[in-house]
Amino acid sequence: MSDHSWEWIGDSIGRRAQLNPKREALVDLDTGVKYSYHDLNDRANRLANYLAEQFQVKKGDRVAFISRNRVEMFDALFACGKLGAVFVPYNVRLASDELAKLIENEQPKVLFYEELFASTVQELKNKLSSLKHYVILTDEKQSEEDITYGYLIHYGNDSPRNCPGLDLEDIYLLIHTGGTTGLPKGAMISHRAVLYNQLNNILDWGITKDKTYHVLLPLFHTGGWNLLTLAHLMVGGRVLINRFFDPGLTLKVISEYKPNYVFGAATIFRMMAEQAEFESIDWSSVEWVMSGAAPTPVQLMEKFWEKGIKMCLGYGLTEGGPTNLCIPVNFMNFSELKEKHASVGKPFTFTSAKIVGDDGQEVEVEQVGELIFNGPQIFSGYWRNEAETKKTLCNGWVHTGDMAKQDKNGFYYIVGRKKNMYISGGENVFPPEIETLIYQIPEVHECCVIGVPDPKWGEVGKAIIAFKAGKILSKEQVLAFLKARLASYKVPKYVISVEEVPKNSVGKIVVQEAVRLYGQPQDN
Questions:
Q1: Once rounded to an integer, what is the mean pLDDT over residues 426-441?
Q2: Which helix (H) or strand (E) segment is 172 a member of?
């Protein structure tokens, strides 16, 4: 433990409420309710006191949530900060069996859940004996045994609360990684990591009290909290939430509420660009939009550029921050931005990055290697999983598993996933290079390229393509396009048409799921 008192870091909402109690902090777009900083702090105090007094939640205990984006999740995060407890939001798409395994491993003291997921929680109650306390996010009881959130907030003690002895290294969040193979791993995010992620946001993106941010990512992902959301609340800005992403609603929000930034995956921006309102709404408040989590076709970026919107790429992962790399968009004009459109940018202020070879040594400029990160914003390891922690966190550096290169000006480019690279006839093939070209075909909506076994070449490529409605191309047409632009060993041997490419809850294409579903060496 450090010699300094860090208990204030767990009560950042209390500090902001002292400074700007009446200032608007959060708007729930689904209910229309607006919350001031005083409101958020008062709700967090009531929840923290109830958790401590009724459920005996103390420093280090876990508080779990199954919910879409709601104000109650902010209450819980801030209440956990005041108690030194750990906030554990679960992916709402997980089945009860998956949730039960996570809960058995993480042992939360209490589980809060949205009414929408009541049937899933009932299944959990039938499977679990260790979890004693459940709270439903309603005002009225659905059954006699229910504890309702409305009751808890109404009767909770509103006395100020903080956690004496809190240390920067104490865990604040348990965020589950993608879980593309096996059970999701719980990444431990400390108060130190949360603080420096927000400082990276504030310093590199110029977040101030006059800014507004609309959260499009789910709050069970690190990006939901640590990209822009908490940074806005740290400086006295305004945050907008709604239950789930809807492209039409998002455009309406941009028109009416004038958010300054939009962050999401390529899928989100593609859906927005396909809306009729995309062309007509007023975008003047939006300083930039940033795409992460998946490759973004330049054709999609051009649609935003044509509207005068600075669209660019960024890169981050739960274990690394996620404030790792971003285009310094505030310091680049349009021509510079377009020139570097394929780059994911440079390291944030408090992030260190380098590219290493298999020997662990840094590679030369323009050479491909594994991207690794260090800095105060990184995670503290996986919950009760030392073996996986050692694989990812080596000598203080987070090993991403992503292959990248750096140009002479210090800009980073993602080449492909180390595990997704395949070897065809002794040549390394990185699927993103092929996917980028496939996205240039006007009829293509989404795509994914994987390696499949081949008796002659060892592995060959297979392109999995979701075409736009009524615009399906033949295998021969796709391959003809690629053969004119790629070395022969990079051209996929197989092409299949699917209705939808497998994606996760933030719109990122899940390659492992694509391999599971379509990994056979054959066409349709």
A1: 87
A2: strand 171-176
